[in-house]
Amino acid sequence: MGLSAPASVNSSLGWKSSSLFVQSGASSTCATLRRSIASSKRKCPQKKVSVTCSSSSSSSDPLLVKAARGEPVSRPPAWMMRQAGRYMAVYRKLAEKYPSFRERSETTDLIVEISLQPWEAFRPDGVIIFSDILTPLPAFGVPFDIEDIRGPVIQSPIVSEEGLKTLHPIDLDKLQFVGESLKILRQEVDGHAAVLGFVGAPWTIATYIVEGGSTSTYTTIKSMCHTAPHVLRALLSHLTQAISDYIVFQVEAGAHCIQIFDSWGGQLPPSMWDSWSKPYIEEIVSSVRKRCPKTPLVLYINGNGGLLERMKGTGVDVIGLDWTVDMADGRKRLGSEISVQGNVDPAYLFSPLPSLTEEIQRVVRSAGPRGHILNLGHGVLVRTPEESVRHFFEVARSLNYDTFLQTQTPTGGIGSLVI
Asked: Is 340 helix (H, G, I), strand (E, B) or coil?
């Protein structure tokens, strides 16, 4: 998935999605009409919104965007990876009516409806498009299917020079459902939350293309680093260009911020990550910076404890920490000049609410008052109580740096010393 590890599993499907069921929602001015998604046209009147890659920040930017840039904010903005998905009853009901994941993630009305479900329920500060890191593959020559149990399947894995011949520049016309969805989400949130887009990093996308789908060992692609490095580098270079273009496409369609998921980067030894993942992420960051210089970029890797300093070297604006990294330690290692995201253990959402409150407060104290986006250290787990998700966001909204950090004693780290 856009995240990593086993992704959220649809109740009507047995497969583990590669998607980052991170998705979020936005404020709705015509929710009742929008729910009538059987119609081929949206019935809600839409404002015309012109969005381009901005070259300057604005005081009207959403709270999450300001925090991503390290600007002063009154409280930590919050969203959750996989915040839309089958832990929500409303999603499960919709999935029964539309059992195909690809239909749900490649149909504009469904994308918008699902993306907005958490927004309407919990009012997070980030609304991430309901999509999948594999969604753009057919647009540059890699068709894929999704099968029950097996999940994503690529019938013709690319492991040779012959396979490379099927690739072509990304055809963004084939991804208009993504662009249209982002435009509508931007209209729906109306500045009250950040609209988030996302992509998979080249290495992570390459694992699916080379392995032919999901894998738990990565033996084919890892051995390819030594047996056919020229083929793998050509594939990664092609993915780098396609992903860079896809990011700009999402920003121009309405995304305030983009998260890059190198979900399987943590499966590489650090020295191999330096060779096979980092350079391509750096190239993406450089390319996007030239065209969208003020769009914050977030990098998340599952199992990133051994890669934090290396991740910082890619030039992204925000480093997402998984829950195995202590926030205070992560802050100390990364320094205060880069923003961080995370990192409450998703299992805390199964704990008594007072315990969840204490953990949220601990993470916020450890992160300090600037450059922190509150999130989980991974995606929302299946069967997570919706009451706990609601409580998570209520606690986040209740915090005020001016009073909270002065009345609480920092524990286990730099706390309020981070500025």
From this structure: strand
